[in-house]
Amino acid sequence: MELNDLPKLHSDFSVDCVVFGFDKGELRILLIERAEEPFKDFLALPGNLVYDNENIDQAANRVLSELTGLNDVYMEQLYTFGDVNRHPQGRVITVAYFSLIKVKKHTLNPLSAYAKKAQWFSVADLQPLAFDHQQILEKAYKRLQNKIRYQPIGFELLPEKFTLSQLQQLYEVILEKPIDKRNFRKKILSFGLLIELDEKQKNVSHRAAKLYKFNKTRYNNLKKMGFSFEL
Amino acid sequence: MELNDLPKLHSDFSVDCVVFGFDKGELRILLIERAEEPFKDFLALPGNLVYDNENIDQAANRVLSELTGLNDVYMEQLYTFGDVNRHPQGRVITVAYFSLIKVKKHTLNPLSAYAKKAQWFSVADLQPLAFDHQQILEKAYKRLQNKIRYQPIGFELLPEKFTLSQLQQLYEVILEKPIDKRNFRKKILSFGLLIELDEKQKNVSHRAAKLYKFNKTRYNNLKKMGFSFEL
DNA sequence: TTAGGATATTGTATAAATTACACTAAAGAT
DNA sequence: ATCTTTAGTGTAATTTATACAATATCCTAA
Protein backbone atom coordinates (compact mmCIF):
# COMPACT_ATOMS: atom_id res chain seq x y z
CA MET A 1 0.00 0.00 0.00
CA GLU A 2 1.29 3.41 -0.89
CA LEU A 3 0.74 6.15 1.65
CA ASN A 4 -0.06 8.79 -0.90
CA ASP A 5 -3.11 6.88 -2.18
CA LEU A 6 -4.82 7.42 1.13
CA PRO A 7 -7.13 10.38 1.65
CA LYS A 8 -5.47 13.38 3.22
CA LEU A 9 -7.10 13.75 6.60
CA HIS A 10 -7.45 16.84 8.71
CA SER A 11 -7.61 17.29 12.43
CA ASP A 12 -8.44 20.23 14.59
CA PHE A 13 -5.51 21.45 16.50
CA SER A 14 -5.53 23.25 19.84
CA VAL A 15 -3.40 24.39 22.76
CA ASP A 16 -4.15 24.06 26.49
CA CYS A 17 -2.34 25.94 29.22
CA VAL A 18 -1.50 24.60 32.65
CA VAL A 19 -0.70 27.69 34.71
CA PHE A 20 0.49 27.07 38.25
CA GLY A 21 0.48 29.59 41.05
CA PHE A 22 1.17 29.51 44.77
CA ASP A 23 -1.02 31.34 47.26
CA LYS A 24 -1.94 30.98 50.91
CA GLY A 25 0.33 27.98 51.25
CA GLU A 26 -1.33 26.02 48.47
CA LEU A 27 -0.37 25.13 44.94
CA ARG A 28 -3.01 26.50 42.61
CA ILE A 29 -3.96 26.19 39.00
CA LEU A 30 -5.75 28.57 36.71
CA LEU A 31 -9.02 27.20 35.32
CA ILE A 32 -11.99 28.55 33.45
CA GLU A 33 -15.59 27.56 33.83
CA ARG A 34 -16.87 26.59 30.43
CA ALA A 35 -19.82 28.62 29.14
CA GLU A 36 -20.66 26.29 26.28
CA GLU A 37 -21.11 22.66 25.35
CA PRO A 38 -19.40 20.27 25.42
CA PHE A 39 -18.66 20.13 29.14
CA LYS A 40 -20.70 23.26 29.81
CA ASP A 41 -20.17 24.45 33.43
CA PHE A 42 -17.19 22.14 33.88
CA LEU A 43 -13.84 23.51 34.89
CA ALA A 44 -11.27 23.34 32.12
CA LEU A 45 -7.74 24.40 31.30
CA PRO A 46 -7.62 27.61 29.28
CA GLY A 47 -7.34 26.39 25.70
CA ASN A 48 -8.53 26.90 22.16
CA LEU A 49 -7.77 26.23 18.53
CA VAL A 50 -4.53 27.26 16.85
CA TYR A 51 -4.70 29.53 13.83
CA ASP A 52 -2.94 28.45 10.68
CA ASN A 53 -0.78 31.55 10.56
CA GLU A 54 0.66 31.47 14.07
CA ASN A 55 3.29 29.29 15.70
CA ILE A 56 2.14 27.03 18.49
CA ASP A 57 3.96 28.98 21.19
CA GLN A 58 2.30 32.15 20.00
CA ALA A 59 -1.07 30.45 19.99
CA ALA A 60 -0.58 29.38 23.60
CA ASN A 61 0.12 32.96 24.58
CA ARG A 62 -2.77 34.37 22.61
CA VAL A 63 -5.26 31.84 23.95
CA LEU A 64 -4.14 32.33 27.52
CA SER A 65 -4.41 36.07 27.11
CA GLU A 66 -7.90 35.89 25.61
CA LEU A 67 -9.25 33.53 28.22
CA THR A 68 -7.60 34.85 31.35
CA GLY A 69 -6.18 38.29 30.60
CA LEU A 70 -2.63 37.13 31.37
CA ASN A 71 -0.02 38.57 29.00
CA ASP A 72 3.68 37.95 28.42
CA VAL A 73 3.74 34.77 30.44
CA TYR A 74 6.66 32.44 29.91
CA MET A 75 5.36 29.03 28.84
CA GLU A 76 7.14 25.87 27.88
CA GLN A 77 5.72 22.98 25.95
CA LEU A 78 4.61 20.09 28.11
CA TYR A 79 3.19 17.27 26.00
CA THR A 80 0.84 16.65 23.11
CA PHE A 81 -2.38 14.77 23.70
CA GLY A 82 -4.09 13.32 20.70
CA ASP A 83 -6.19 10.31 21.52
CA VAL A 84 -8.89 9.83 18.93
CA ASN A 85 -11.70 10.16 21.44
CA ARG A 86 -10.39 12.83 23.72
CA HIS A 87 -12.87 15.34 22.34
CA PRO A 88 -16.53 14.27 22.03
CA GLN A 89 -17.10 16.30 18.86
CA GLY A 90 -14.29 14.92 16.74
CA ARG A 91 -10.58 14.61 16.46
CA VAL A 92 -8.77 17.39 18.27
CA ILE A 93 -5.06 17.15 18.94
CA THR A 94 -3.85 19.47 21.65
CA VAL A 95 -0.44 20.68 22.70
CA ALA A 96 -0.31 21.36 26.42
CA TYR A 97 1.82 24.19 27.79
CA PHE A 98 3.18 24.66 31.25
CA SER A 99 3.71 27.88 33.16
CA LEU A 100 4.55 29.21 36.60
CA ILE A 101 3.46 32.68 37.63
CA LYS A 102 3.32 34.99 40.61
CA VAL A 103 -0.37 35.05 41.51
CA LYS A 104 -0.32 38.51 43.07
CA LYS A 105 1.47 40.10 40.14
CA HIS A 106 -1.34 39.44 37.66
CA THR A 107 -5.02 40.18 37.56
CA LEU A 108 -7.45 37.85 35.87
CA ASN A 109 -9.51 39.50 33.21
CA PRO A 110 -10.79 37.31 30.40
CA LEU A 111 -11.69 39.03 27.13
CA SER A 112 -13.69 36.18 25.79
CA ALA A 113 -17.28 35.29 26.63
CA TYR A 114 -16.29 31.76 25.80
CA ALA A 115 -15.17 31.41 29.39
CA LYS A 116 -17.44 32.54 32.19
CA LYS A 117 -14.44 33.46 34.32
CA ALA A 118 -10.88 32.48 35.03
CA GLN A 119 -10.06 31.61 38.61
CA TRP A 120 -7.41 30.02 40.78
CA PHE A 121 -8.21 26.60 42.21
CA SER A 122 -6.27 24.55 44.72
CA VAL A 123 -4.61 21.61 42.99
CA ALA A 124 -5.12 19.50 46.11
CA ASP A 125 -8.88 19.12 45.80
CA LEU A 126 -10.40 19.57 42.39
CA GLN A 127 -13.72 18.56 40.95
CA PRO A 128 -13.57 16.61 37.65
CA LEU A 129 -12.28 18.63 34.71
CA ALA A 130 -13.53 18.81 31.12
CA PHE A 131 -12.13 16.55 28.39
CA ASP A 132 -8.88 14.81 29.35
CA HIS A 133 -7.73 17.87 31.26
CA GLN A 134 -7.31 15.84 34.43
CA GLN A 135 -4.69 13.77 32.66
CA ILE A 136 -2.95 16.85 31.31
CA LEU A 137 -2.85 18.37 34.76
CA GLU A 138 -1.31 15.22 36.19
CA LYS A 139 1.42 15.27 33.59
CA ALA A 140 2.09 18.92 34.35
CA TYR A 141 2.21 18.31 38.07
CA LYS A 142 4.74 15.53 37.63
CA ARG A 143 6.82 17.79 35.42
CA LEU A 144 6.71 20.45 38.12
CA GLN A 145 7.75 18.02 40.84
CA ASN A 146 10.59 16.79 38.70
CA LYS A 147 11.75 20.15 37.51
CA ILE A 148 11.89 21.83 40.87
CA ARG A 149 14.48 19.30 41.98
CA TYR A 150 17.09 20.49 39.54
CA GLN A 151 16.07 24.01 38.53
CA PRO A 152 15.39 26.92 40.85
CA ILE A 153 11.94 27.50 39.43
CA GLY A 154 10.38 27.97 42.85
CA PHE A 155 11.13 31.66 42.58
CA GLU A 156 8.77 31.99 39.66
CA LEU A 157 5.88 31.18 41.98
CA LEU A 158 6.79 33.47 44.87
CA PRO A 159 6.57 37.27 45.14
CA GLU A 160 9.70 39.26 44.28
CA LYS A 161 10.59 39.38 47.97
CA PHE A 162 10.15 36.27 50.04
CA THR A 163 11.42 34.56 53.16
CA LEU A 164 13.33 31.30 53.28
CA SER A 165 10.45 29.73 55.16
CA GLN A 166 8.06 30.63 52.36
CA LEU A 167 10.43 29.11 49.85
CA GLN A 168 10.75 25.96 51.94
CA GLN A 169 6.99 25.68 52.32
CA LEU A 170 6.64 25.92 48.55
CA TYR A 171 9.09 23.08 48.07
CA GLU A 172 7.32 21.01 50.70
CA VAL A 173 3.94 21.52 49.08
CA ILE A 174 5.17 20.67 45.60
CA LEU A 175 7.26 17.70 46.61
CA GLU A 176 4.65 16.54 49.13
CA LYS A 177 7.18 15.83 51.85
CA PRO A 178 8.67 17.63 54.85
CA ILE A 179 12.15 19.09 54.50
CA ASP A 180 14.68 19.75 57.26
CA LYS A 181 14.91 23.48 57.83
CA ARG A 182 18.64 23.77 58.45
CA ASN A 183 19.63 21.52 55.58
CA PHE A 184 17.28 23.28 53.21
CA ARG A 185 18.70 26.70 54.03
CA LYS A 186 22.27 25.49 53.75
CA LYS A 187 21.60 23.98 50.34
CA ILE A 188 19.58 26.83 48.88
CA LEU A 189 22.03 29.48 50.06
CA SER A 190 24.95 27.45 48.69
CA PHE A 191 23.71 28.07 45.15
CA GLY A 192 24.46 31.74 45.60
CA LEU A 193 21.26 32.64 43.81
CA LEU A 194 19.64 34.58 46.64
CA ILE A 195 20.21 38.21 47.50
CA GLU A 196 19.64 38.99 51.17
CA LEU A 197 17.72 42.24 51.45
CA ASP A 198 17.95 44.89 54.20
CA GLU A 199 14.33 44.32 54.92
CA LYS A 200 12.11 42.13 57.04
CA GLN A 201 8.61 40.78 56.98
CA LYS A 202 5.91 43.21 58.14
CA ASN A 203 2.66 42.64 60.01
CA VAL A 204 3.43 39.22 61.37
CA SER A 205 2.70 38.37 64.98
CA HIS A 206 6.03 36.69 65.61
CA ARG A 207 9.69 37.25 64.88
CA ALA A 208 9.92 38.76 61.40
CA ALA A 209 12.02 36.90 58.87
CA LYS A 210 14.59 38.39 56.51
CA LEU A 211 13.46 38.94 52.96
CA TYR A 212 15.39 37.66 49.98
CA LYS A 213 15.14 38.09 46.26
CA PHE A 214 16.23 35.84 43.43
CA ASN A 215 19.41 36.77 41.58
CA LYS A 216 18.22 36.18 38.04
CA THR A 217 21.34 37.60 36.38
CA ARG A 218 23.58 35.23 38.27
CA TYR A 219 21.27 32.33 37.53
CA ASN A 220 21.35 33.00 33.81
CA ASN A 221 25.14 33.26 33.83
CA LEU A 222 25.61 30.05 35.75
CA LYS A 223 23.07 28.26 33.59
CA LYS A 224 24.94 29.30 30.46
CA MET A 225 28.07 27.82 31.97
CA GLY A 226 26.30 24.53 32.46
CA PHE A 227 25.83 24.60 36.23
CA SER A 228 22.95 22.68 37.67
CA PHE A 229 21.10 23.17 40.93
CA GLU A 230 20.04 19.87 42.42
CA LEU A 231 18.18 20.14 45.65
CA MET B 1 -13.62 39.50 19.32
CA GLU B 2 -15.22 36.16 19.88
CA LEU B 3 -13.15 33.11 19.03
CA ASN B 4 -16.00 31.19 17.53
CA ASP B 5 -16.59 33.82 14.87
CA LEU B 6 -13.26 32.99 13.31
CA PRO B 7 -13.00 30.50 10.48
CA LYS B 8 -12.20 27.00 11.64
CA LEU B 9 -8.75 26.30 10.31
CA HIS B 10 -7.17 22.98 9.55
CA SER B 11 -3.59 21.85 9.64
CA ASP B 12 -1.90 18.74 8.48
CA PHE B 13 -0.60 16.69 11.27
CA SER B 14 2.34 14.29 11.15
CA VAL B 15 4.73 12.24 13.26
CA ASP B 16 8.51 11.95 12.93
CA CYS B 17 10.63 9.29 14.56
CA VAL B 18 14.11 9.77 15.94
CA VAL B 19 15.48 6.24 16.28
CA PHE B 20 18.90 5.92 17.89
CA GLY B 21 21.20 2.93 17.63
CA PHE B 22 24.75 2.17 18.67
CA ASP B 23 27.14 0.31 16.41
CA LYS B 24 30.90 0.09 15.91
CA GLY B 25 31.46 2.52 18.75
CA GLU B 26 29.28 5.23 17.27
CA LEU B 27 25.88 6.62 18.03
CA ARG B 28 23.70 6.25 14.98
CA ILE B 29 20.34 7.43 13.79
CA LEU B 30 17.92 5.88 11.37
CA LEU B 31 17.19 8.06 8.33
CA ILE B 32 15.49 7.65 5.00
CA GLU B 33 16.49 9.17 1.72
CA ARG B 34 13.48 11.00 0.36
CA ALA B 35 12.25 9.82 -3.03
CA GLU B 36 9.93 12.78 -3.63
CA GLU B 37 9.73 16.53 -3.42
CA PRO B 38 10.04 18.51 -1.31
CA PHE B 39 13.61 17.80 -0.24
CA LYS B 40 13.95 15.00 -2.79
CA ASP B 41 17.19 13.05 -2.19
CA PHE B 42 17.70 14.65 1.21
CA LEU B 43 18.02 12.54 4.30
CA ALA B 44 15.03 12.80 6.61
CA LEU B 45 13.59 11.34 9.77
CA PRO B 46 11.04 8.61 9.09
CA GLY B 47 7.74 10.44 9.32
CA ASN B 48 4.33 10.86 7.73
CA LEU B 49 0.80 12.08 8.28
CA VAL B 50 -1.42 10.85 11.10
CA TYR B 51 -4.76 9.29 10.21
CA ASP B 52 -7.85 10.64 11.88
CA ASN B 53 -8.78 7.29 13.35
CA GLU B 54 -5.52 6.43 15.08
CA ASN B 55 -3.86 7.73 18.21
CA ILE B 56 -0.59 9.57 17.78
CA ASP B 57 1.47 6.83 19.41
CA GLN B 58 -0.07 4.30 17.06
CA ALA B 59 0.67 6.55 14.11
CA ALA B 60 4.31 6.77 15.11
CA ASN B 61 4.55 2.99 15.17
CA ARG B 62 2.74 2.54 11.91
CA VAL B 63 4.79 5.16 10.09
CA LEU B 64 8.06 3.78 11.41
CA SER B 65 7.02 0.31 10.36
CA GLU B 66 6.03 1.40 6.87
CA LEU B 67 9.17 3.41 6.26
CA THR B 68 11.78 1.21 7.88
CA GLY B 69 10.26 -2.21 8.51
CA LEU B 70 10.78 -1.88 12.28
CA ASN B 71 7.90 -3.26 14.32
CA ASP B 72 7.00 -3.20 18.00
CA VAL B 73 9.52 -0.55 18.88
CA TYR B 74 9.05 1.30 22.13
CA MET B 75 8.75 5.03 21.45
CA GLU B 76 8.15 7.95 23.72
CA GLN B 77 6.96 11.36 22.74
CA LEU B 78 9.71 13.93 22.41
CA TYR B 79 8.34 17.31 21.40
CA THR B 80 5.91 18.91 18.97
CA PHE B 81 7.22 21.17 16.23
CA GLY B 82 4.73 23.46 14.60
CA ASP B 83 6.35 26.57 13.21
CA VAL B 84 4.23 28.01 10.45
CA ASN B 85 6.97 27.71 7.85
CA ARG B 86 8.57 24.45 8.84
CA HIS B 87 7.09 22.73 5.77
CA PRO B 88 7.41 24.49 2.38
CA GLN B 89 4.03 23.24 1.15
CA GLY B 90 1.85 24.46 3.97
CA ARG B 91 1.20 24.18 7.64
CA VAL B 92 2.24 20.82 9.02
CA ILE B 93 2.48 20.29 12.74
CA THR B 94 4.57 17.29 13.69
CA VAL B 95 4.96 15.31 16.88
CA ALA B 96 8.46 13.91 17.21
CA TYR B 97 9.04 10.54 18.84
CA PHE B 98 12.16 9.16 20.40
CA SER B 99 13.37 5.59 20.44
CA LEU B 100 16.40 3.48 21.30
CA ILE B 101 16.93 0.13 19.64
CA LYS B 102 19.47 -2.64 19.32
CA VAL B 103 20.78 -2.26 15.79
CA LYS B 104 21.69 -5.90 15.31
CA LYS B 105 18.32 -7.16 16.46
CA HIS B 106 16.37 -5.55 13.64
CA THR B 107 16.61 -5.60 9.90
CA LEU B 108 15.66 -2.60 7.84
CA ASN B 109 13.04 -3.30 5.27
CA PRO B 110 10.83 -0.41 4.19
CA LEU B 111 7.43 -1.28 2.72
CA SER B 112 6.88 2.09 1.19
CA ALA B 113 8.30 3.41 -2.07
CA TYR B 114 8.00 6.82 -0.48
CA ALA B 115 11.44 6.20 1.00
CA LYS B 116 14.24 4.97 -1.20
CA LYS B 117 15.79 3.16 1.70
CA ALA B 118 16.21 3.33 5.45
CA GLN B 119 19.76 3.32 6.74
CA TRP B 120 21.83 3.99 9.82
CA PHE B 121 23.94 7.13 9.86
CA SER B 122 26.51 8.27 12.37
CA VAL B 123 25.15 11.16 14.42
CA ALA B 124 28.62 12.66 14.61
CA ASP B 125 28.86 13.75 10.97
CA LEU B 126 25.63 14.27 9.11
CA GLN B 127 24.80 16.11 5.94
CA PRO B 128 21.91 18.60 6.17
CA LEU B 129 18.51 17.01 6.79
CA ALA B 130 15.14 17.77 5.22
CA PHE B 131 12.69 20.25 6.77
CA ASP B 132 13.54 21.15 10.39
CA HIS B 133 14.72 17.64 11.09
CA GLN B 134 18.14 18.87 12.16
CA GLN B 135 16.45 20.77 14.96
CA ILE B 136 14.36 17.76 15.93
CA LEU B 137 17.46 15.59 16.04
CA GLU B 138 19.23 18.08 18.28
CA LYS B 139 16.33 18.06 20.71
CA ALA B 140 16.35 14.28 20.72
CA TYR B 141 20.07 14.10 21.29
CA LYS B 142 19.81 16.44 24.25
CA ARG B 143 16.99 14.33 25.65
CA LEU B 144 19.17 11.24 25.28
CA GLN B 145 22.12 12.87 27.02
CA ASN B 146 19.90 13.98 29.82
CA LYS B 147 17.97 10.77 30.20
CA ILE B 148 20.96 8.47 30.32
CA ARG B 149 22.17 10.22 33.44
CA TYR B 150 19.24 9.10 35.54
CA GLN B 151 17.76 6.10 33.75
CA PRO B 152 19.61 2.95 32.72
CA ILE B 153 18.55 3.29 29.12
CA GLY B 154 21.99 2.42 27.80
CA PHE B 155 20.98 -1.22 27.80
CA GLU B 156 18.37 -0.54 25.14
CA LEU B 157 21.14 0.30 22.70
CA LEU B 158 23.44 -2.65 23.39
CA PRO B 159 23.05 -6.32 22.46
CA GLU B 160 21.48 -8.64 25.05
CA LYS B 161 24.94 -9.63 26.23
CA PHE B 162 27.57 -6.96 26.60
CA THR B 163 30.75 -6.15 28.47
CA LEU B 164 31.22 -3.37 30.99
CA SER B 165 33.68 -1.71 28.65
CA GLN B 166 31.10 -1.61 25.89
CA LEU B 167 28.62 -0.06 28.29
CA GLN B 168 31.17 2.50 29.40
CA GLN B 169 32.06 3.35 25.83
CA LEU B 170 28.38 3.93 25.09
CA TYR B 171 28.12 6.34 28.00
CA GLU B 172 31.27 8.12 26.91
CA VAL B 173 30.04 8.54 23.36
CA ILE B 174 26.64 9.82 24.41
CA LEU B 175 27.89 12.13 27.13
CA GLU B 176 30.88 13.20 25.04
CA LYS B 177 33.35 12.90 27.89
CA PRO B 178 35.74 10.29 29.27
CA ILE B 179 34.69 8.36 32.37
CA ASP B 180 36.95 6.74 34.96
CA LYS B 181 36.80 2.99 34.51
CA ARG B 182 36.90 1.91 38.14
CA ASN B 183 34.39 4.47 39.31
CA PHE B 184 32.06 3.67 36.43
CA ARG B 185 32.06 -0.04 37.23
CA LYS B 186 31.55 0.56 40.91
CA LYS B 187 28.59 2.82 40.24
CA ILE B 188 26.92 0.71 37.58
CA LEU B 189 27.27 -2.51 39.55
CA SER B 190 25.93 -0.82 42.69
CA PHE B 191 22.54 -0.48 41.03
CA GLY B 192 22.21 -4.26 41.08
CA LEU B 193 20.72 -4.18 37.59
CA LEU B 194 23.34 -6.32 35.89
CA ILE B 195 23.47 -10.10 35.81
CA GLU B 196 26.97 -11.47 35.44
CA LEU B 197 26.93 -14.33 32.93
CA ASP B 198 29.12 -17.45 32.92
CA GLU B 199 30.36 -16.42 29.56
CA LYS B 200 33.08 -14.35 28.00
CA GLN B 201 33.75 -12.40 24.84
CA LYS B 202 34.81 -14.50 21.87
CA ASN B 203 37.16 -13.73 18.99
CA VAL B 204 38.99 -10.84 20.54
CA SER B 205 42.74 -10.56 20.31
CA HIS B 206 43.23 -9.71 23.97
CA ARG B 207 41.95 -10.76 27.34
CA ALA B 208 38.25 -11.55 26.94
CA ALA B 209 35.84 -9.63 29.13
CA LYS B 210 32.95 -11.08 31.11
CA LEU B 211 29.53 -10.68 29.57
CA TYR B 212 26.60 -9.21 31.45
CA LYS B 213 22.93 -8.84 30.77
CA PHE B 214 20.43 -6.31 32.02
CA ASN B 215 18.05 -7.39 34.78
CA LYS B 216 14.86 -5.91 33.41
CA THR B 217 12.59 -7.50 36.01
CA ARG B 218 14.56 -6.01 38.85
CA TYR B 219 14.66 -2.65 37.10
CA ASN B 220 10.89 -2.59 36.71
CA ASN B 221 10.39 -3.52 40.35
CA LEU B 222 12.77 -0.88 41.63
CA LYS B 223 11.30 1.72 39.32
CA LYS B 224 7.82 1.00 40.65
CA MET B 225 9.17 1.56 44.14
CA GLY B 226 10.45 4.94 43.09
CA PHE B 227 14.17 4.24 42.98
CA SER B 228 16.26 6.33 40.67
CA PHE B 229 19.59 5.56 39.09
CA GLU B 230 21.77 8.62 38.83
CA LEU B 231 25.10 8.06 37.23
C1' DT C 1 58.25 -20.66 23.33
C1' DT C 2 58.32 -16.50 24.53
C1' DA C 3 58.00 -11.50 24.48
C1' DG C 4 55.01 -7.89 23.45
C1' DG C 5 50.55 -5.74 22.74
C1' DA C 6 46.00 -5.03 24.04
C1' DT C 7 42.29 -4.84 27.10
C1' DA C 8 40.19 -6.60 31.75
C1' DT C 9 40.01 -6.41 36.41
C1' DT C 10 40.53 -4.71 41.00
C1' DG C 11 41.07 -1.19 45.93
C1' DT C 12 42.16 2.59 48.73
C1' DA C 13 42.77 7.09 50.57
C1' DT C 14 40.85 11.71 50.39
C1' DA C 15 37.45 15.07 49.68
C1' DA C 16 32.83 16.41 49.35
C1' DA C 17 28.02 16.03 50.16
C1' DT C 18 24.21 14.46 52.80
C1' DT C 19 21.85 13.51 56.83
C1' DA C 20 20.15 13.76 61.53
C1' DC C 21 19.32 16.48 65.14
C1' DA C 22 17.77 20.84 69.26
C1' DC C 23 18.42 24.98 71.24
C1' DT C 24 18.33 30.27 71.44
C1' DA C 25 16.47 34.77 69.40
C1' DA C 26 13.03 37.98 68.17
C1' DA C 27 8.59 40.00 67.89
C1' DG C 28 3.82 40.61 68.77
C1' DA C 29 -0.25 39.24 71.78
C1' DT C 30 -2.23 38.85 76.27
C1' DA D 1 6.19 40.33 82.10
C1' DT D 2 5.29 36.15 80.17
C1' DC D 3 3.49 33.41 76.53
C1' DT D 4 3.18 32.06 71.76
C1' DT D 5 4.95 31.63 67.42
C1' DT D 6 8.25 31.48 63.99
C1' DA D 7 13.35 32.67 62.74
C1' DG D 8 17.80 31.48 62.87
C1' DT D 9 21.92 28.72 63.56
C1' DG D 10 26.23 24.34 63.92
C1' DT D 11 28.22 19.97 64.31
C1' DA D 12 29.14 15.10 64.19
C1' DA D 13 28.34 10.89 61.65
C1' DT D 14 27.48 8.74 57.43
C1' DT D 15 27.43 8.27 52.69
C1' DT D 16 28.96 9.29 48.25
C1' DA D 17 32.25 10.97 44.84
C1' DT D 18 36.77 11.38 43.18
C1' DA D 19 41.51 10.55 41.95
C1' DC D 20 44.64 7.35 40.90
C1' DA D 21 48.05 2.48 39.02
C1' DA D 22 49.35 -2.13 39.27
C1' DT D 23 48.43 -6.93 37.96
C1' DA D 24 45.86 -10.52 35.06
C1' DT D 25 44.55 -12.63 30.84
C1' DC D 26 44.52 -13.63 26.16
C1' DC D 27 46.17 -13.35 21.52
C1' DT D 28 49.83 -12.38 18.10
C1' DA D 29 54.01 -12.62 16.11
C1' DA D 30 58.87 -13.23 16.28
UniProtKB/TrEMBL annotation, chains A, B:
<dbReference type="InterPro" id="IPR000086">
    <property type="entry name" value="NUDIX_hydrolase_dom"/>
</dbReference>
<keyword id="KW-0378">Hydrolase</keyword>
<dbReference type="Pfam" id="PF21906">
    <property type="entry name" value="WHD_NrtR"/>
</dbReference>
<protein>
    <submittedName>
        <fullName>NUDIX hydrolase</fullName>
    </submittedName>
</protein>
<dbReference type="InterPro" id="IPR036388">
    <property type="entry name" value="WH-like_DNA-bd_sf"/>
</dbReference>
<dbReference type="InterPro" id="IPR036390">
    <property type="entry name" value="WH_DNA-bd_sf"/>
</dbReference>
<dbReference type="GO" id="GO:0016787">
    <property type="term" value="F:hydrolase activity"/>
</dbReference>
<dbReference type="Pfam" id="PF00293">
    <property type="entry name" value="NUDIX"/>
</dbReference>
<feature type="domain" description="NrtR DNA-binding winged helix">
    <location>
        <begin position="154"/>
        <end position="214"/>
    </location>
</feature>
<dbReference type="InterPro" id="IPR054105">
    <property type="entry name" value="WHD_NrtR"/>
</dbReference>
<dbReference type="InterPro" id="IPR015797">
    <property type="entry name" value="NUDIX_hydrolase-like_dom_sf"/>
</dbReference>
<feature type="domain" description="Nudix hydrolase">
    <location>
        <begin position="14"/>
        <end position="137"/>
    </location>
</feature>
